[in-house]
Amino acid sequence: MTQTVESLFDAAIERYKAGEAPADLIPVFKDICDRAPKSAAAWACLSWLYLLTDKPNSALKAAQKSVKLSPQDPQSRVNLAVAMLDAGKPGVRQHVEIAGQVMTVAEELRTEVLQNIEDGLSRKPGWASLERVKGWLT
Question: Residue 59: which of 21, 93, 85 has the closest Cα?
C-alpha cells in the first residue's frame, strides 16, 4: 500500500472506533480495496462492515478475498465463518477451526479477535451467527 492508502486506512479505522456508522464507512473501505486490492486487512474490514449492515453476500465475497490473501489471519476466517452462517452457506467449521488454531498459538491475535467479536456484539446486539462463532472459539 502506498502511504496515501495507508493513511486512508488508518483514518477510516479511527472513524470506526469513534463510532461512525458502518454504512457510512463502506464506500471508504471499498475505495481502499480498489486502490490496494491485495490488502487482506482492508478486505477484512470491508467484510466486517457488510456484516454489521446485514449484507451477508457482499460480506462473503469480501471475506473470501481477505482469506485468499491472508489464509492464516484469524479475523478474516471469523468474518468468513459469520458471513457463511448469515448467508446460509455450508463449510463453516473449517474456517472456525483454522481461526481457533491460530488464536491458540498467537495470544495477541486471540485478544484482538475476541475484542472485535465483543465490539460486533455491542454494535449489533443479538447477532446469532457471531454468538455461535464466539462460542466455538472460547
Answer: 85
Question: What are the pLDDT digits (tens) for 76-113?
Answer: 999 999 999 999 999 999 999 999 999 999 999 999 99
Q: For residue 88, what is the domain's CATH number?
A: 1.25.40.10
Say how many Å lie between the first and final Cα of the chain, rounded: 34
What is the pTM assigned to this prediction? 0.95
Which cell goes with 109?
491475535
Burial class (CB in 10 A: 0-12, 13-18, 19+), 61: middle
Q: CA triplet 29, 89, 41: central angle to 5 degrees?
A: 25
Render 4-47 in DSSP notation, one character per residue.
HHHHHHHHHHHHHHTT--HHHHHHHHHHHHHH-TT-HHHHHHHH
Contact 86, 71 (CB under 8 A): no
Q: Which domain holds residue 132?
A: 3-137
Specify the number of domains making up the chain.
1
